[in-house]
Amino acid sequence: MPFDGRKIVAGVSAACKGRPVSEAAIVALAADIEELARSARTELTTEDVGRAVLERLQQQDHVAYLRFASVYKGFANAEDFARELRLLERGGRAAV
Fold first, then answer.
1. Rg of the chain taking only CA atoms, in angstroms
2. Which of 23, 34, 65, 75 is least buried, going by the fewest C-beta atoms within 10 A?
3. Does the pLDDT at position 41 exceed 90?
4. Which residue in 31, 46, 88, 27 sits closest to 63, CA to CA?
């Protein structure tokens, strides 16, 4: 499936709604992942793309990260949020 940066912009924009993340930062994040996809030796999977988005959001805004992760990882309950938040607070990489 061809890479579509617009899908990343849409998903990240939804996660960042009401957060102090500029549209320019969202577009730059999508462009960064598009470049990653272009330079990859093999086609990136949706898991690869999701993981790359999460890594970048983790650096930019933890609330947006949790929102995106809740959809990407399919959180089923509040404990899923709590587990992910504990990982963020420890400064570790969240499991993807």
1. 13
2. 23
3. no
4. 88
